[in-house]
Amino acid sequence: MKYTISNLAASAAIFGSALAASGDFNVLTMNVAGLPEILQGNDVPGDKAVNSKTMGSKFSEYNYDMIHVQEDFNYHASIYETDNHPHRTATSGGVPFGSGLNSLSTKYFFNYNRVKWNVCSNASGADCLTPKGFTFMRVQVDEGIYVDFYNLHADAGTEPDDLTARAANLKQVADYIDANSVGNAVVVFGDTNSRYSRTADAIRVFRTQNGLTDAWVELIRDGVEPTAESLCDNPSKTDYCETVDKILYRAGATVDLKATHWGYESTKFLQPDGNILSDHNPITANFTYNPGTTLRQSDFWGGPWGNWFSDVPKLTTLSKPKAAAITVRGANRLDGVSVQLADGTIFTHGGTGGTATTLNLEPNEFWTEAVLCQGQKDGHTRNFYIKATTSTGRTAEAGNSTSDCRTSTAPAGWQIVGFMGQDGDEVDQLAFVYAPQ
Ligand SMILES: *[C@@H]1O[C@H](CO)[C@@H](O)[C@H](O)[C@H]1NC(C)=O
Ligand SMILES: *[C@@H]1O[C@H](CO)[C@@H](O)[C@H](O)[C@H]1NC(C)=O
Ligand SMILES: *[C@@H]1O[C@H](CO)[C@@H](O)[C@H](O)[C@H]1NC(C)=O
Predict the structure, then answer these.
(1) Which segment of the chain is annotated as a signal peptide (predicted)?
(2) Residue 17: what pLDDT?
């Protein structure tokens, strides 16, 4: 299945311009042991195709909002045959072509990206046999509520080359988060092949570099990363033991996120005769989300091209931001957007082409609404047009309108003060950041 931003248009249209909502969602991560039976039996009894169908039917039955699977190689079709999640990634192939990573979701997602590891190790675990790595997606959890989800399958084994490769893998994800999830809520869940109790493992990089919290450490281990080994049975009879599969997360300024539950789901994933389905215990977590109290955001419009940017980190440092001038640039398409705040801060995104139009706002006038229209250029969806409207009804526009438009209106008592999205010479994708007036 191919995901385009137009699907988002359809779902966004249903929500209209209601205020961002609160709610909860749950996630599951499971290494589904889908290497060909002749290569790796995984010490799991029974037929792998049959077991994979059972896993798919359990995914449907328990209806997790987002499932990340690893080692989803040669029995992928069996899982998808019995699973019924509406949004799923297409397989990248069996051994030796695919990464084994897939996602099954009740929520719409976009900007999906598969990234291969820069480093792998042949020392143990045959990690160079297939192009393993990680995946990125931006999930529309609710209107104006976006969370970046990462799946991963890091290098296995404990020989020196394995440890080096695995540390490089985790650092690669951490660096990608720094570049592509700036300002955003993030959930990383997958097979890290790492344990806190194995000091050579670099799993702490997600806390130290990205500010992520491990939901298991937080909720089951009272916030203390273990230093002593505690191996799990399969199925595990306790949540206290440590597995290499992890769920880590952080909130963002526009989306508050909190883990409310973490647990092994092993006893829900058994064969009819009671045997296990995978050599890994599947794990789950529940999260509650709330719109930010000092910043919120609109939905996105445009396509997943160019580089990620966000004014959110800077905005969190300002008190009472207010737009003093709006500048929009365009000709055939939308070239650039800029807002100057009353304190002098300027946020500018996109390129310098097109004709610039500037609207200076009065002290008691706020930027409250924006229309974006998108279109196709060289087969890529991007923004073609913007019209900014203030609380007194004055407007500034740029670019060329299309028939595919979206209006973002600040919640009552709020205003537009900045942007987030993806840009290059033009404004490929855009969302607006709101602050109280
Ligand atoms: C791993 O082994 C494969 C097959 O022998 C080889 O092509 C590859 O270069 C090796 N990779 C590393 C990092 O040693
Ligand atoms: C976790 O979320 C699921 C799905 O909403 C729900 O059925 C379950 O009761 C929740 N578990 C806990 C412990 O809150
Ligand atoms: C704007 O779009 C219309 C319809 O696609 C097109 O006919 C027109 O030439 C465009 N104008 C500019 C300035 O590109």
Answers:
(1) 1-20
(2) 45
Neighbouring C-beta atoms of residue 240, cutoff 10 Å: 13
Task: Please give the pLDDT value at position 326.
Answer: 98
Indicate the top mutation candidate among 25, 26, 65, 105 to test ligand 2's pocket, ranked by most ligand atoms within 8 A of CB. 26
pLDDT at 19: 62
Shared domain for 200 and 153, answered yes or no, is: yes
Ligand approaching nearest to the C-alpha of 373: 3
What tokens were used for 199? Answer: 């000091």
Distance CA 247, CA 196 (A): 13
What are the helix (H) ranges across 18-75?
48-62
Helix residue spans in 228-330 (DSSP H): 312-315
Taking the CB of residue 84, how many other CB atoms lie within 10 A of it?
A: 15
Predicted local distance difference test score (pLDDT) of residue 127: 87
Q: Give the structural domain span for 22.
A: 8-291
| Full DSSP string of 255-278 | EEEEEEEEEE-GGGSB-TTS-BSS
- We report the CATH number of the domain holding residue 224 as 3.60.10.10
Question: How many A from CA of 126 to the centre of ligand 1?
Answer: 9
Same domain, 329 and 268: no
Residue 383 near residue 305 (C-beta atoms within 8 A)? no
Same domain membership, residue 310 and residue 283 = no
Q: ∠ at Cα 211 (210, 213), nearest 5°?
A: 120
Other CB atoms within 10 Å distance of the CB of residue 14: 7
Q: Write out residues with Cβ below 6 Å of ligand 2.
A: 26, 260-261, 286
- Which residues in the chain show pLDDT less than 50? 1-18
* Segment 372-389, tens digit of pLDDT: 999 999 999 999 999 999
Which conformational region is residue 43 in: left (phi greater than 0), alpha (psi within -120 to 50 degrees), or beta? left
Say whether both 276 and 301 belong to one domain: no
| Residue 183 DSSP code | T
Which ligand lies nearest to the CA atom of residue 23 in the structure?
Answer: 2
The CA distance from 169 to 150, in Å, is 13
Tell me how many domains the chain contains. 2
In whole angstroms, give the CA distance from residue 317 to residue 145: 21
Domain of residue 381, CATH code: 2.100.10.30
Question: Is the domain of 93 the same as that of 181?
Answer: yes
Q: Would residue 3 count as lying in a domain?
A: no
Please work out whether the CB of residue 128 comes within 6 Å of at least one atom of ligand 1.
yes
Instruction: Give residue 97's Cα distance to chain centre.
Output: 24
Report the C-alpha gap between 249 and 207 in whole angstroms.
9
